[in-house]
């Protein structure tokens, strides 16, 4: 026994030494694990875990790499489905999980399905899965009931400063429902007829555009009224979106020239929108009018408006007061929580953030090179900017400091009265549209079987898309229209090489 008076202690036992050794081992192992995790967080997601996986990227001509080292070399009908090479295993896991969410077909809530991870569809909606509108991560052909959406609003602003929803039909027309299961009727149907718009190129070659005329029929909740504003929207592709998200706000603001101070006729501006994730105002960059600031917000908005799936960002169904059956329908989550949880929402965003962009081809073909020069000469590159570098503040290091060749400035531009939807959205006016990226469009027909372009799919190819340009782009359109057929073909070949 120890002698407290003299302060002597018994010699340590072997069990005490063993406990000390175990404790030392655990502390060392914990420190090592923390160091490895810190290393991976700081470096591996940026540099990759497998050096050999980057060999083809390093060997490629940098001009072909539209998405830097997040480019791919697949050119068949799966070209838009490729995971960016050399992802850290955690990002790769999130990517795979997100892929499942994109492909998942949701189902209408029933008592037996309550709380399952594919529950809560509708009760009024446009599609049962993300892939319905984004087939193979591209653009499903925009047809009523198949991919074409119809945004609605009335004069005034919503509480968040955005479009004011229609008092009966809400902010988006719902043309599908499972009436037999829920007793809730779809809102109606969209019909399109086309008026021909003839024209002539400068060399006398005739062309014909088609002007869409939209109507809503079979309305199940009463007339819409004369003050309704409608805006048709075709799907957009999902690949490369993480890099667009990583372009800094400062870069977008440096490109903006809302008062055309440089006198070049181009007056792009940012759309300042409500960010549902933060509750603050932010710069929008996703959607046809740049109405969402991040992929998390964009995913949650699409889940709600396209499929009727609630999230923590948008926790309430879009059922309006006049739609009693919709409001009474069963929620697809337990305890009245969101039908799609935050972890799944993050995984869905990660999938879009790390979808690779197909690399360019035929970069040295004489006609392609000629078309690329013409693209700049007639002014297209003023808005479809061919080069940007992502910022250093994105949450994923893998997306920082990358050279992006997306051919967009993500800004709003006046596109003329012929393309106006007459519907303001935050700072975007009816004539204003975000510059859509051009990268990967050369494979659209291969992947999705069509080349229907513009915000509503009215253009049947690159030529018609250019000819619909007006407003700030009118000069570029007229220079294209005045070209010889040889030069027009060269410009289109360049676009098809992207």
Terminal CA distance: 85 Å
The residue ranges in which pLDDT falls below 50 over 5 or more consecutive positions are: 1-10
Helix content: 25-40%
Number of strands: 19
Largest sheet: 3 strands, antiparallel
Structural class: alpha+beta
**Tally the helices: what do you get?**
16
Cα-atom radius of gyration: 27 Å
Approximate strand percentage: 15-25%
Mean pLDDT: 91
Spatial strand sequence of the major β-sheet: 6-5-10
Rough outline = globular
What order do the helices and strands come in, and which of them pair?
Blueprint: H1 14-42, H2 44-47, H3 55-59, E1 71-72, H4 89-103, E2 107-108, E3 119-121, E4 124-125, H5 130-133, E5 149-157, E6 163-164, E7 176-177, H6 179-182, E8 189-200, E9 206-217, E10 229-233, H7 241-246, H8 249-255, E11 271-274, E12 281-284, H9 295-307, H10 324-328, H11 342-353, E13 357-358, H12 366-377, E14 388-389, E15 403-404, E16 412-414, E17 432-434, H13 444-448, E18 452-453, E19 459-460, H14 462-467, H15 474-481, H16 485-497
Parallel strand pairs: 1-13, 2-3
Antiparallel strand pairs: 4-7, 5-6, 5-10, 8-9, 11-12, 14-15, 16-17, 18-19
């Amino acid at each position: 026994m120890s002698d407290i008076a003299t302060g002597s202690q018994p010699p340590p036992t072997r069990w005490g030494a063993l406990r000390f050794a175990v404790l030392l081992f655990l502390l060392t192992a914990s420190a090592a694990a923390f160091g490895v995790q810190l290393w991976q967080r700081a470096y591996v997601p940026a540099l990759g875990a497998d050096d050999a996986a980057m060999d083809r990227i390093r060997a490629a001509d940098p001009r072909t790499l539209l998405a830097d080292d997040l480019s791919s070399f697949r050119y068949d009908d799966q070209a838009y489905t490729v995971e960016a090479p050399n992802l850290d295993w955690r990002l790769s896991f999130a990517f795979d999980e997100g892929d499942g969410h994109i492909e998942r077909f949701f189902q209408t809530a029933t008592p037996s399905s309550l709380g399952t991870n594919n529950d809560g569809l509708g009760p009024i909606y446009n599609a049962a899965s993300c892939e319905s509108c984004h087939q193979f991560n591209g653009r499903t052909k925009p047809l009523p009931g198949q991919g074409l959406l119809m945004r609605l609003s009335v004069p005034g602003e919503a509480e968040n400063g955005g479009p004011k929803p229609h008092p009966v039909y809400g902010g988006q027309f719902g043309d599908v429902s499972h009436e037999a299961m829920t007793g809730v009727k779809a809102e109606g149907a969209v019909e399109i007829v086309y008026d021909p718009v003839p024209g002539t190129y400068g060399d006398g070659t005739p062309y014909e555009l088609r002007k869409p005329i939209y109507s809503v029929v079979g309305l199940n909740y009463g007339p819409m009224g004369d003050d309704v504003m409608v805006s048709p929207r075709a799907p957009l592709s999902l690949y490369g979106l993480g890099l667009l998200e990583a372009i800094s706000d400062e870069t977008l603001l440096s490109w903006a020239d809302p008062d055309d101070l440089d006198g070049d006729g181009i007056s792009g501006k940012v759309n300042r929108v409500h960010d549902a994730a933060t509750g603050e105002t932010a710069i929008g960059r996703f959607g046809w009018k740049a109405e969402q600031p991040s992929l998390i917000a964009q995913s949650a908005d699409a889940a709600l408006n396209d499929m009727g799936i609630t999230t923590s960002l948008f926790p309430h169904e879009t059922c309006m007061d006049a739609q009693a059956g919709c409001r009474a329908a069963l929620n697809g989550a337990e305890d009245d929580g969101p039908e799609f949880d935050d972890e799944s929402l993050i995984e869905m965003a990660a999938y879009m953030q790390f979808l690779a962009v197909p690399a360019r081809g035929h970069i040295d073909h004489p006609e392609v090179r000629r078309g690329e020069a013409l693209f700049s000469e007639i002014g297209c590159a003023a808005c479809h900017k061919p080069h940007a570098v992502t910022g250093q503040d994105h949450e994923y290091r893998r997306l920082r400091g990358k050279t992006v060749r997306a051919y967009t400035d993500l800004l709003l531009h006046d596109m003329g009265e012929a393309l106006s939807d007459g519907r303001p959205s935050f700072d975007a006016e009816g004539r204003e549209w975000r510059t859509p990226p051009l990268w990967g469009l050369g494979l659209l027909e291969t992947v999705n079987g069509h080349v229907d372009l513009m915000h509503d799919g009215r253009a049947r190819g690159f030529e018609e898309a250019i000819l619909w340009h007006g407003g700030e782009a009118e000069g570029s359109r007229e220079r294209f229209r005045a070209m010889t057929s040889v030069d027009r073909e060269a410009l289109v070949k360049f676009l098809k090489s992207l």
